[in-house]
Amino acid sequence: MALLVLVRHGQSVANLANVFTGWLDVALTPQGEAEARQAGQRLHALHFDLAYCSTLIRSRRTLELILAQLHQDSVPVVAADALRERMYGALQGLNKAETIRKYGEDQVNRWRRSYEDAPPEGETLHHTQQRVFAYFETEIGPQLRRGKNVLVVSHGNTLRALRMQLEGLSVAQVEALEIPTGGIRAYDLDPDLRIRRAWDLP
């Protein structure tokens, strides 16, 4: 039996400013740091053998605050580019409301939520899923198969893509899936990585 826990980073300065972030490397807000500590408090009963995050500071800082809250600072941490947020291309750094005024709400919603529509010069969610799950299969999955408890702190679209693969979600389900900043999803997995139980931590 292995435990996998997925956490979205806390609120970033770009979340607060309502801009497309993608691969922009932005810090957490004070609220985001508080959300990270609260996530650590909600995970207080769990022990982790290994932790993963993206190479972006909002993900790394959230993981750092969670492990400090858990008094598990000695847990080995791997930061990987493969776990970065979806690449939003030419939209990165643009205000979402202004982008809607320029391109129309329907078009912007397709860029944001669609599985197959890519923003200009950016990734589709499908592309994000391919890179994230390839990393999961080669790096994270083997640890889980050894019975390790693994914590992954990443980004909204990254985790949507991973959850689609793990849970067998349909395109419609993943397009509707919302993961709040600081949100936590946990899985009890068998040795073949089949889900025995999945739950959100309140």
UniProtKB/TrEMBL annotation:
EC code(s) of this entry: 5.4.2.11
GO terms, molecular function: phosphoglycerate mutase activity
CDD domains in alphabetical order: HP_PGM_like (cd07067)
PROSITE patterns: PG_MUTASE
Keywords: Gluconeogenesis, Glycolysis, Isomerase
Catalytic activity of the protein: (2R)-2-phosphoglycerate = (2R)-3-phosphoglycerate
Pathway(s) of this molecule: Carbohydrate degradation; glycolysis; pyruvate from D-glyceraldehyde 3-phosphate: step 3/5
PANTHER family in the cross-refs: PHOSPHOGLYCERATE MUTASE
Family named by the database record: Belongs to the phosphoglycerate mutase family. BPG-dependent PGAM subfamily.
Descriptive protein name: 2,3-bisphosphoglycerate-dependent phosphoglycerate mutase
